[in-house]
Each structure stands twice: as C-alpha cells, then as structure tokens.
Amino acid sequence: MKAFTYERATSPEQAAAAVAGRDGAKFIAGGTNLLDLMKLQIEAPTHLVDLQDLGLDKIDATRDGGLRIGALVTNTALASDDRVRAQYGVLTRAIVAGASGQLRNKATTAGNLLQRTRCPYFYDTNLPCNKRAPGSGCAAAEGFSRQLAVIGTSDQCIATYPGDMAIALRLLDATVETVMPDGTGRSIALADFHRLPGDQPWLDNTLAEGELIISVTLPKPIGGRHIYRKVRDRRSYAFALVSVAAVLHDDGTGRVAFGGVAHKPWRSEEAEALLPQGAGAVVERAFAGAAPTDDNKFKITLADRTLASVIAEARS
Amino acid sequence: MTPTGNDNATADNVTGSGSSAAGLAATLMPVGMEVNGMTVALSLDPRTTLLDAMREHLRLNGTKKGCDHGQCGACTVIVNGQRINSCLTLAVMHDGDAVTTIEGLGTVDDLHPMQAAFVKHDGYQCGYCTPGQICSAVSVLKEIAAGVPSHATADLTATPTVTRDEISERMSGNLCRCGAYSNIAEAMVEVAGAEA
Ligand SMILES: Cc1cc2nc3c(=O)[nH]c(=O)nc-3n(C[C@H](O)[C@H](O)[C@H](O)COP(=O)(O)OP(=O)(O)OC[C@H]3O[C@@H](n4cnc5c(N)ncnc54)[C@H](O)[C@@H]3O)c2cc1C
Ligand code: SF4
Ligand code: FES
Ligand code: FES
C-alpha cells in the first residue's frame, strides 16, 4: 500500500470539500473494496476521508411512503430492516446473495454502489487495461471474457458492474442523493448513475470529483412477488455470471433487471412490457444489439433460462 | 496467497517499507481500542490493517492471515458485536471500538462453548482457519437469533432458524482447505441446541 494520510470527516459538506480540495483524496466507507484495491496499488489515494461519523447510518420513512437509506447503512442492516424485508423483498434478496456475512457487516450502501469491476485484467497490473490505465488497451478483448459483459460494451472495455444490490435498486427506481463540494445537492436516478464504458471506461459512474453520496431513496412499495435469482460458479460467496431481479404481478406484468451482463444494471422498460409473453420475448428485446464474445455468449441463453425459472417461481 | 502466519512475511505490510515513494513520510496516528476487554493504546501507520495491528503490534497471533483480500475469512474478528474481516479494514478506522479475537472468546482452561464443540466434533485438521471459523460461528448463531436474513432464508418475514442450509450459507465466507466443513456444522448445531 502507498502511504496516505487519514482524517475522519465531521459533516457531509466538510467531507466533500476535503476530497475535492486535495489531489488524490478519496472517501472511505466500509473499506472492503477500496482497501482491497489499495493493497494491489490499483488505487493509490494519498489521503482518506473516513465517513463513519457523519450519522448517515439511518433508514427513514419518506413523506411519499418510501424509504431514505443513509449512505453508510451497512448491507446487513439494510437487508435486515423489517420494512425492506416486507415491502422491498427483492432488495434484501439481492444483498444477501452477495459477498459473505463478514463483508456485508462492513459494506455500506454507497460503497456497494461504487464497487469497481471484477474484470481479471483490471486486477492484473502487468497487463493493459483502459479502465485502470487509460489508453493502455484492453487485455480482455483477446483474453478470457467468460465473466464479462455481453451488451453495452465498447471496443475500449467490456467489463461488468459486478454488484447485486444495485440491480434491485435499479428495478425499484431508486434515486441517489448527493452533496457537492460547494454544499449544493442533487438527486440522480439509478438508471443514470452507472455509465456505459464508451470511450472513457475509467469512469464507472456520473459522480463529480468530491461528490458525496448521502442517501439512496426508494419510492413507495409496488407490491408483487419479489425474486432475485443469481447464477454463479459456486453456490455462495461468488460474483454473478447472470442475475435476474424481478417484481412480478398476478396479471403477468412486472419489472425485470439483469446483473452480470453489462457495465451497469441492465433494465429495459420496453422489454419488461413483454413479460406477459414470457421470458423469451423479454430477453430477445432486452438483449437486442448484444455483442457477446465466444466465451460469454452463453450468458444470453442463461439470462433467458433464469428469467423463465423466475417467472415459473412467481406463478407457483 | 499461502498462509504463512510468519511475522517476517507480514511485517512489510505494517511498515510498508519501500513504498513511501509518494514522498509522504508515514505519520503515526494514535489508536485506542478495547481488545478482549483490555484497553490498548497504539501508535500506528494509517496503512496498518486491523489484522496486522492484532498480530504484529499486540502479538495476538490467534487471528490468521490467509488471503489478505477478504476472500477466506481466516482473519475474522468480532468488532462491536459484529464479525468482520480484519484484513479489509484499517486499525485507525476502529479508534474507540471493542474488538474480540479468538484469544478473547475463551482460554485453554476455560473454553468458549463453541471452542469446546469444535474440539469434540473435530472441527479442524491443520487449524489455520479455525480462529476465524470460531469467531464466525459464534457470530452466526447470534445473527440468526437476532433475525438477520440470509440467502438460505425461505420466508423473509419470518425469524430464521438454525438449519444445515442456514449454517453452510452463513459460514460461506470462511474457507477451510482441510475440508472440515461438516464437522464445523456439527459443532454449531450442538452449541445452538444447547443455547435453545
Ligand atoms: C471476496 C469478496 C466477495 C464479494 N462478493 C460480492 C458479491 O457477490 N456481490 C456484491 O455485490 N459485492 C460483492 N463484494 C463487494 C462488496 O459488496 C463491496 O466491497 C462493498 O459493498 C463495498 O462497500 P464499502 O462500504 O466497503 O466501500 P469502500 O471500499 O469503503 O468504498 C468503495 C468506493 O466508494 C467510495 N465511496 C464510499 N462511500 C462513498 C460515499 N458516501 N460517497 C461517495 N463515494 C463513496 C470510496 O471512495 C471507494 O472508491 C465482494 C467483495 C469481496 C472482497
Ligand atoms: S474489459 Fe475493461 S476492465 Fe477489463 S481489461 Fe478491458 S478495459 Fe480493463
Ligand atoms: S485474510 Fe482472508 S479474508 Fe482476511
Ligand atoms: S482446518 Fe486446515 S484450513 Fe481449516
């Protein structure tokens, strides 16, 4: 690990200003992704601003019947919340499908949204990677791409967003609230939060330098059957090859989002309108324009079969 | 990622020797914690993980370093009542916290019930993963009792119960190269039964 200095922030505004005002400064929340990457020198911040004292660890009801989740609420606390379990079950299901009990006790809502890709070449500092070292090339293009994205890719990067929680948040139309270094705030729809790699694959999301996430808000509950189905190489403690988050209603309508297939949670409102016609129609529309590699084209078949089994489960 | 448990192998991570190329001299920071019921005051390079603080600075070598990347669970300790991977957190982030390591759960003469059950059921072979397994196992039973859901919980609105499926899912963050999994589960079932 490279040397860095450390401070504990005292207010959201102070935290944002502390990071924006200093080259190489970064926020640290649970630390489970950032420290992992710092040990490999993929991230090398010179200053860390710890967010744990900001009081952003509460889940409050909103006036329009939703929930505002503090950025520092842990994955365990969020998954365990009675309101979330009863009314946003797909969110609890997605969280507990990820990582391990130890990691979820430390991982936070904001940190989880901002976790970086698991592309093996992003982790291997001996090889080119446009996300880690802009302009160096993409080792995955000619390499092993079984885990990587099938849609929304660019010729510069085919990495995925690897997380589970964000797939459920996208399905639930969550928004992300932030504070800017100048003290102003804004709200970003989860749909617009993560980016596609395009020709700037080093940018994972649309946050500005020093912009601090203070909360994630869920609109009021939408009812329905909540299902999160994650397909992976081992039964637990592994990232998704493909995951399906769904809320399905008795009349056959509903919502569906896919994980493990793109640089962001993959949801197409046009495609989910075809849910009454079955999984095949939805997947055909959602993955129209997909550009899989030979190694990962199985993911589209897998998405189809996984969604079919989710629909069958909802009907049973 | 060979588990070494060797002081020399890990000392590098504590001092980060040779890696202050950024020109930043490592400034030591005060860290106060309650470790296994004892108040400790340390002066640490901010890079020091909680794991290295336990092993290298407090000489509590029970907690093990397996992967140093959150992938094996050997470093599991209990902080403010919750199990975490001590390799993926900085000691400075725990100023003011209460830490329990395997040394704090029980002693040779006065084993924690989970330690006794591991002995009885042969819940280990080489023993390298065992301190992390035991810290995790104790916490898993508390998490189930507190109603924390898992991937194996069928009904999210019901209180989870101690089943084999719940145990293996919740213990999946603790790897064992010797494959003692089924005996670990036996030990946990026995302790859970005694508590119920
Ligand atoms: C072995 C292993 C297995 C895993 N498996 C899974 C899995 O199956 N599914 C899954 O979804 N995840 C998995 N994870 C990833 C894990 O969920 C993330 O590491 C965790 O959620 C990150 O949260 P954190 O609070 O620790 O983030 P940190 O590491 O503290 O921060 C991550 C990033 O977010 C930034 N940040 C943090 N908080 C804020 C804020 N409020 N505003 C702005 N920026 C902020 C930091 O600067 C940093 O860049 C796994 C991790 C490991 C190590
Ligand atoms: S796919 Fe993206 S993250 Fe992976 S090597 Fe290519 S540029 Fe890097
Ligand atoms: S040493 Fe492997 S998880 Fe910490
Ligand atoms: S007992 Fe040897 S690794 Fe678990």
Automatic annotation (TrEMBL), chain A:
Gene Ontology molecular function, alphabetical: FAD binding; oxidoreductase activity
Coiled coil: none
Keywords on record: FAD, Flavoprotein
Domain FAD-binding PCMH-type: 1-223
Entries under InterPro entries matching the protein: CO_DH_flav_C, CO_DH_flav_C_dom_sf, Diverse_Substr_Oxidored, FAD-bd_PCMH, FAD-bd_PCMH-like_sf, FAD-bd_PCMH_sub1, FAD-bd_PCMH_sub2, Mopterin_DH_FAD-bd
Protein name as catalogued: Xanthine dehydrogenase family protein subunit M
Species per Swiss-Prot/TrEMBL record: Croceicoccus ponticola
